[in-house]
What we know:
Blueprint: E1 11-14, E2 17-20, H1 31-35, E3 38-40, E4 43-46, E5 49-50, H2 53-66, H3 75-88, E6 94-102, E7 116-123, H4 131-136, E8 138-142, H5 164-175, E9 180-184, E10 190-193, E11 197-202, E12 205-209, H6 218-229, E13 234-237, E14 249-254, E15 258-265, E16 268-269, H7 274-286
Parallel strand pairs: 8-9, 8-15, 12-13
Antiparallel strand pairs: 1-2, 1-7, 3-6, 4-5, 4-6, 6-7, 9-10, 11-12, 11-14, 14-15, 15-16
Helix pairs in contact: 2-3
Amino acid sequence: MGISFDKFDGVIWYDGKLVPWTEATLHVLSHGLHYASAVFEGERAYGGQIFKCTEHSERLKRSAQILDFEIPYSAAEIDAAKRLVLEKNNFRDAYVRPIAWRGSEMMGVSAQTNTIHLAIASWQWPSYFNPEERLKGIRLDLAEYRRPDPKTAPSTAKAAGLYMICTISKHRAERRGYADAMMLDWQGRVAECTGANIFFVKDGVIHTPTADCFLNGITRQTVIELAKRRGIEVAERRIMPEELTGFSECFITGSAAEVTAVSEIADWRFTPSQITKQLMDDYTAETQPKAAAA
């Protein structure tokens, strides 16, 4: 086991100022800890530039609004704070984690007057999955828990509470020898993985579940655009588990996972091939820093 995350060196941006990493703490009675009134983002910096930086900041603010609170910083201010964290920690290729939460002024379900806090941390983190596995294809279990009906949970927010069933499902999958797990939705349709969106390929066409009860990932949107640039048809639709037998390729996408091939989901098998490999390469090229205009 490596160094505990609360023991890292460096600085964290916390409510408008940089503080030493080990001093970026909150009270045990913070509402965000007890009632999951917290939203966050997962972002990557490549060569010192945060990929889709503003899109992530804007989504963070939207997520907070869905959870009925307002982050007291603009998207532009959040962008600047993220870049400052990278600069002060001397990182160029790194993971970036902004998080906003309700504080500790009131402890109970209702906490409308609690202070809203925002912190931004960054650390060096290689690929979420083993680099060799990313092309060969990771193995996925089938999760026991399902993505809830969007009428019962704020599914369009990147909210901390929505990841509870993801942690349970990923732990179970890892104990069974898998890298991750694929989740179905409340109606038994294919949804996503515990922290990544999922895609399938059949006869040169990409198929991906409609993002109506889970997050429409920024990486997901990027990969769909990259596929369309290459003239590859992308069908966003309902996908039932029994259809998986007919797909030849499978891959997942996310800021942490980037584009990662899948070779197995429970009893279904896939062979990473041309489309998966092409989109892995295209995504890598897309994330490279762009030269500033003269």
